Amino acid sequence: MQAANEVASINTHTQTKHRPHIRANEKAGLAALVRELRARYGSDLQRVVLFGSKARGDFDAESDLDLLVVVRMGNGAYRQYWSEIVDMAWRVELTYGIVTSLVIKDIADYDRMREHQLLLARNIEQEGIDLWMMPPSAPTSKPASPKPATIS
User: What percent of the residues of the chain are helix, what percent strand, and what percent coil, each to the nearest 5?
Assistant: First the structure.
């Protein structure tokens, strides 16, 4: 029950969509991943979105959790951010028995994808469930220098 409450609390700044087909371990794993991302990246984390078959409700037994992670990154930092985020997701997958498929984007790159109406961005915007989004009034910071992740 606590995991479900954590997912609900993650959505405080976003449009919440009720999805009873997302299992308890998936909810708990998604909440844990969002907590870790927020702890690591702070105000540089812009958005985390569940999309794909789990968001639409047309999944099967082999479906994974498709996630978009949008982070403000410094120049040349993509590989390090990607590696850190994949490591976080991997630990969450093992802990909660889930499988994720990540799309990791810098905020400027994702904004360009939306501007050019690329299919992936259109699908995410239409079907996605925001798990966390930076509130519009939140202060922004300059991209942080990548720091070693400290996740136990």
Answer: 50, 15, 35
